[in-house]
Amino acid sequence: MSKVTLTIDGxxxxxxxxxxVLEAAQQAGIFIPTFCHDPELSRPGACRICVVxxxxxxxxxASCVTEAGEGMVVYTDTPAIIExxxxxxxxxLANHPEDCLTCHKxxxxxxxDYAYYYGVRxxxxxxxxxxxxxxxxxxxxxxxxxxxxxxxxxxxxCEEIQGNNAIDFSFRGFSAKxxxxxxxxLSDTEISNCVFCGNCIAVCPVGALTxxxxxxxxxxxxxxxxxxxxxxxxxxxxYDLNVxxxxxxxxxxxxxxxxxxxxxxxxxxxYGFIHHPxxxxxxxxxxxxxxxxxxxxxxxxxxxxxxxxxxDTYGPDAVALLSSARVTNEENYLMNKLARxxxxxxxxxxxxxx
Amino acid sequence: MTNSIGEIAEADFILAAGTNTFDAHPIxxxxxxxxxxxGGTLAVIDPRLTDSAKLAQYHLQLKPGTDIALFNGLxxxxxxxxxxxxxxxxxxxxxxxAFKQTVAKYTPDYVSEITSVPADVIREVAxxxxxxxxxxILYTMGITQHTCGTHNVFSTCNLAMLxxxxxxxxxxxxxxxxxxxxxxACDMGALPxxxxxxxxxxxxxxxxxxxxxxxxxxxxxxxxxxxxEMIEAAGKSVKAMYILxxxxxxxxxxxxxVMHELKSLDFLVVQDIFLTExxxxxxxxxxxxxxxxKDGTFSNTERRVQLVxxxxxxxxDSKPDWEIICLVATAMGYPMSYDSPESIMNEVAKVTPSxxxxxxxxxxxCGLQWPCPTPDHPGTKFLHANKFVRGLGKFNPVExxxxxxxxxxxxxxxxxxxxxxxxxHTGTMTQRTGALEVFYPEEYLEISCEDAGKLxxxxxxxxxxxxxxxxxxxxxxxxxRVTPGLVFTSFQYPDVPINRxxxxxxxxxxxxxxxxxxxxxxxxVS
Lengths: 354, 526
Hints:
The structure holds two protein chains of two kinds. Chain A is α+β, with helices and mostly antiparallel strands. Chain A has helices spanning about 20-25, 80-95, 110-120, 155-160, 190, 200-205, 265-270, 295-315, 330-345, and strands at about 5-10, 10-15, 75, 140-145, 170, 175-180, 210, 225-230, 240-245, 245-255, 285, 290-295, 320, 350. Chain A folds into four domains: about 5-75, Roll (Ubiquitin-like (UB roll)); about 125-275, 2-Layer Sandwich (Alpha-Beta Plaits); about 280-310, no CATH class; about 315-355, no CATH class. Chain A has nine helices and 14 strands. In chain A, the strands form six sheets. A three-stranded mixed beta sheet of chain A has the order 2-1-3, with helices on one face. The two termini of chain A are about 50 Å apart. The mean pLDDT of chain B is about 95. By secondary structure, chain B is an alpha/beta fold. A six-stranded mixed β-barrel of chain B has the order 16-20-17-19-18-21. Chain B starts with a helix and ends with a strand. Chain B is globular and about 65 Å long. Chain B folds into four domains: about 5-175, Dimethylsulfoxide Reductase, domain 2 (3-Layer(aba) Sandwich), CATH 3.40.228; about 175-225 and about 295-315 and about 335-375, Rossmann fold, CATH 3.40.50.740; about 225-285, Dimethylsulfoxide Reductase, domain 2, CATH 3.40.228.10; about 415-525, Barwin-like endoglucanases, CATH 2.40.40.20. Chains A and B meet through β8, β9, α7, β11 and α8 of A and α3, α12, α14, β9 and β10 of B. β13 of chain A pairs parallel with β9 (about 240-245) of chain B.
C-alpha cells in the first residue's frame, strides 16, 4: 500500500494513502474537534468544526473529508482556525437551550466540551430559537430536538448500521429537523419503522437523544461503567452496565467483539428486572402449602437431605437436575459435576430445545 | 454456528430457514441487512411474512412442517442442473449416491405440491444458492421444533455439502441460538449423554477420566433423561428435582400436564431470581443473583466465550448460582468450594479440550471462539476448514414427514409459536423492566384476514384457542404475517400460557417438542 507523508502542526507523519487529514492528526496525537464525524459511518463533512488550515487550499477544508497528500502542510490551531471554530460554536449556541444544569449529557457533551475548551459563551448571536415539544411518548428514548445540532450521526447510524431508516432530515434551513417521516414520532412504528434499539443515542454528541429511564438518575461523572455480556439472546453483545451507588441505572454501548456499539431494545432497555421488587431475596421453604422465609443453612440442609434421601431410597436416577442456558459456563459445569460426581446420575439437561 | 456472526455480512447468498432474525436476534439481523445492502441475495424460508421475509428477494412461504421436501427440492434442482460441487462431494463427503437417489423424486413440481412454494422459485433459489461464491444457511427453531427437527437440520447440512458451501469464510450451516448461554450449557455437559465438550458418557475412558479428576469411585454410565422425559417421569421413576433458572411450567409443551407432573414429585427445589410459575410449585426456593451480580463467562452462538463481570452486590440475601451449587454439593457430603468463577474456569480448561486454552486473563483482552485447545491458540473463526470432525461429511438422506398433528374437522387450523422482539422467553425478566412491557403490554394471536372473516372475528376481539390438550384466551390481531389456516402467538406472556395448547410430541432423536405445528380451533369469546 502506498504511503504519504505530511506535516501537521510541525509534526511529520506517514500514513497510508487514502487516510484523511483528521485520521492522520489523530494518529499523531493532535486534537481536532468533531461533531458529525464517526469512524464507522459515512462522512458528510457537514458540521465544519474540524476545519484546518492547509496553505494553498481554496478555503478552510474540513479535515474529516480531506485526504492527506504527499508533502501536505497542515495547521490545526492557527488564530483563523480557532476563530472559525468559535464562530461555529457561537452559531450553534445561538439556538441551543441553556440548560446544562439539568441536561443528562452534562459532562459528556461535545458541544459543552468544545465551548469550554474554546471559551465560547452563549449570546454572541441572538435570534429565533426552536421551541419543539420534547418527544417522550415511548418508554425508551427521549428526543429533545431543541438540543439537536443536526450532525446527522443518528440518521446515519439508523441507516448504515441498524438498517432501519427510521429517521432523516425533514424541512429546510432553520426549520431542518431530524425525525421520522410524515412528522410523526418514533412510537408510531408503522410509519417510523423504529425498533427502539437506541443505537441513535449511542452516537448523539449532545443531549438531543437520551435514555428515558436514566434521566435524573446520575450525573455522567458519578457513573461506574462495567463492561459485561448481555443476558438475553445468544448473540453475546457486549455493553456497559452503568452503576451508581451499587445500583444499575442503565445500559450504554461499548465496543463489543460481535456488536460494536449496536444493541437491541432488550439489551439496551431491558435491565429493569435487576432491581425489580419481585426479586427473590431470601430462601423460601414451603410449609403447609405456603412459603416461609428461611436461613441459607436451613434451606441448603433441607435440599441436601431430600435429594440425598431420594438417592438413598430409590437410587441416583431418582434425582433429576435441570441446569440453565441462562447461567454461566462455570455454573453449568458445576451442575454437571453435582449431577455426575455428587449424586451419581446423568439426569441433567437444560432448555436448549425450548 | 460453523461460522462467525461477522461473516454473515459478507455472504453473497443467505438462505435463512425458520429464523425470525430481526425479532429474535436483532444484531444478527443487522448483519443480514448489511449483506443485502452489499448486493447479497436473501432467501427466507418461513410460513410467516416476518420482517426478514419482507426484506428478502425470495420468500419461500411454505406450509408449516414441509421443510425437508423444500430442501430436497433445492438439492434436486442443483443435482439435475449439474450445479453441485463435484470436487467437494468427491473429496470431502460420503453417501452421495444414496442422497441423490432420495432427492430424485423431489422435483420442483412435486415439492411445490407439498410446500405451496412455486416451482420456479425453488429453481431460482437453488441456482442462486449453488452458484454464489459464498452461500450461508441460517436457521433457528422454525426448522428444529418439529418432530422431524433433526432431519430438517440434516437436510440443511446435505445442501451445504452438496455445494461445498461449508468450511470456508461466510459459507456454512449456522444455527442462531436463542439463549445467552445455551451454547455454553451444552459445552459444559448440562446434557444427559455427554460430559463437557461433548465427551460421551457411554465411553468408558471418559467415565474413568472424570471419575479420577473429580475424585469419585465411578461415573454413571446409564444415559440420562432429557428435560421432557424427566418431567414425564416425575412422580414415577424421578422422585426429586433440582431446577436451576428454568421455567418449564410456561416453556414446555402441554403445560397442564407439566404442572401435574411437577406437583407429583416428592421434592422440588427451584433456584431462580424470581418466584416463577415453576418456583411456585417448589418445596424449597433458593434465591439466585442475576448476571449483574456475579463474574463468569457466557458462550455465544458463534462459540465465543466472553466475560460476565460483576457490577453490583447480590440483591438481598441472594447468592450467585455457583456458590449455591457448592453449598448443596458440600452439604451432600462432597466438599466443593472455589474462591471465584475464575478458579472454576481453570478447572474446566483442564477437562474440556475445546476450552483448554481459555482463561479469564485472556478473556480480559477479547472473547475467544472455541475450539481453543491451548493457551497460545487464537481460537477458531469457522469450522470444518479442511476436514469434518468425523472425517468425511456424511450425506443423511431424509424423506418428508408430515407433522405429528394435522388439522382436521374439529381442530381445523395450525398454531405455530415463537418469540417477539420486545420480550424474552417466558417473560420472567422482560415483563419486569419498566419499559419493554410498557411498550408491548399484551400478547395477541396473529390471524389472517380471511380466517377472521370466516370466524366473525374483528381486530382486538378476545378469542379462545383450543387444542386437544388445553385452551387459552388471547386477543386477535388480523395480520398479513400469517396465511389462511395458520395462527401464531408467542409463549412469552404468563397471561397467555399458550403451551397449555401445544403438542408435546417430540423428535425421536433430539427430543425437541413440535412447537411449530399443532392443530387448534379458534373461536370468538362472546
